[in-house]
Amino acid sequence: MSSFDLLSIGHSNISAERFLAMLQAAKATTLADVRSVPASRHFPWFSKKTLAANLAAGGIAYVAMGDTLGGRPLNEALYRDGVADYEAMAVQPEFRAGLDKLLDAAATSRLCMMCAEREPLDCHRCLLVARNLAERGLAIGHLLHDGTIEPHAATEQRLLKLDESACDLFASGQRERLAAAYRRRAQAVAYRRKPRTPDRVTEKR
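Now predict its structure.
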């Protein structure tokens, strides 16, 4: 943990006991929940109140940050073709303020941010939050379910490898290729807004 400024984890379907053990093994003292909706119907031990209580019993503080760092924006302008637009979200004042708050918490504790997806490359905590933290010069480690910690730079290399088949021939350098890979991955896995049901029109008789 000492080589990272903060960690990230996806809770997926693991048990509450295993989740707590993973955080303790990584010496995390604060969990920042970046889910837009801090609840889980299928795994209720990851719902906000239960999770916070379980963490407190294990000596770990809980802070909810999904209002500013969540992956499901309320603003319709932050969707492109019905998919959450991470690049547009990243420049919003609320998001930038959320990053500042996250860094303030990380400065005084060993912080791990949490969302739901097991694989970092399937989750906005990596494709949106960690990406922007890395651009600020922070070292982020993704806590994987086998207990290892993958540096964000290594995660980006996996992203580039996954994106090889769709390599942008017009991207002239590594930076451009990486940005294109982030964009394509986000379009594939980001939150999709459900289409609105058309209002029923009452026929006049």
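Residues 113 and 150 are 14 Å apart (CA to CA).
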